[in-house]
Specification:
Elements: H1 3-7, H2 22-26, H3 33-53, E1 60-64, H4 74-88, E2 92-95, H5 101-111, E3 116-121, E4 135-139, H6 142-151, E5 155-158, H7 163-177, E6 186-189, H8 195-208, E7 220-222, H9 225-235
Helix pairs in contact: 4-5, 4-9
Amino acid sequence: MSDEEETKFTVPSSLLKSLKDAEKSFLGGRRSSADELESAVRVFLELLRGFEELEFDGPCVTVFGSARFAEGHPYYEMGREVGRLLSEHGYAVMTGGGPGIMEAANRGAREAGGLSLGCNIQLPREQKPNQYLDRFVEFEHFFIRKVMLVKYSSAFIVLPGGFGTLDEAFEVITLMQTRKLDSFPVVALGGAYWDELAEFLTSTLVREGTISEADLDFITRAENPTHAVKCVVDACK
C-alpha cells in the first residue's frame, strides 16, 4: 500500500446524513454531555469531509460577495471578470458556492478553463450550488465553511455584499490582525459601494481607538477587476 493510500481517508456519507439543523441545535444553549459529544463528532466528520473534497494542487483565491446580484448586474459581471482573470493567472477560484457574485466568479473561472470550487451552506431557504462548480462541498456549520474558505487561499477579493460577506471579510482581517493567519491580500472591489464603510472605519473606529490606523493597511481598494487581480499577483510573487 502506498503512502498516499495509507493517508487517504473517506468519510462514509451515512455518518453525515443526520446533519440537517445540527448547527441550530448546537447553538441552541446548554445540552446534555451526550448531545455535546455527538455535535463534536459531527463537526469533526464535517471537517474531514471538507479536507478530502477540497484536495487540489496550486494556488487559490477566495472571492466573497452577495448572492443577490443576478446575471447582467454590474457587480455580477465584475465578479465574472475577476474569476476569469484569476484563472488566466493560474489561480483556482473558491467561493461560497451559491448564486449571485459567487456564481459569477465561478463562472468566469470555468469559462477561462480554471478550477472552480465552492463551499456551499445548508440554509432554511435552500441555497443550491451554482452550475459552474468543478467541485463543491455542502456544509451544515457556518464556521466550518468559513475555515475552508480561508484555509486554502492565498488571497481574498471582496465584492459588494451584505452581512455574510462582511462577516467573512472581517474574520479574515481579524485573523491577520491577531497573527492567527499570515498576512495575505484582502482586496475590496466595488467602487463607491465601499466608500461609506471606509469612512466609518477611519472616522469612528480609528478615531475611537478600537483599531489602529495601521490596521487599515490590511485592506486594499481596487478600481476594477484587472487592478484587483494585479494586487493579488503582485503580493503573491
